[in-house]
Amino acid sequence: MSFIGRLVVTILVFMGYSVFFPQRFHLAGFGVAVLAALVLSVLNTILKPILSIFSLPFLLLTFGLFSFVISAIMLQITSYVMGSANFGFSSFGSSLILAILLSVVNSVVTQHNRENE
Questions:
Q1: What residue spans define the domains of the chain?
Q2: Splitting the chain (117 residues) into consecutive groups of 10 residues, what average pLDDT does each group show?
Q3: Residues 47, 43: Cα–Cα separation, whole Å
């Protein structure tokens, strides 16, 4: 899937999560969702590989499930960069749920795109 496609999926998941779980996740609007998706993609490009290397023992012990925790940390850093007034989580568990949701939705969309090519 292209960069724009992943960005659109991330924006839609952010918007949907904020609508269904407003007590767990605050999103100020569509523009904030777009900016947060861009910030998250930059952080995932730069910081996530470094965190993955440092957490390699945990990744091996958990058979890769620790990658969800790394993704949740990326979302928490995105919240910090964006400012919690515009984009924020009520707890780390909320960011972990969103990380799992983002992973599942991206997997489904990627699989769907592969089948249609």
A1: 3-109
A2: 86 92 90 93 93 93 94 94 85 93 90 76
A3: 5
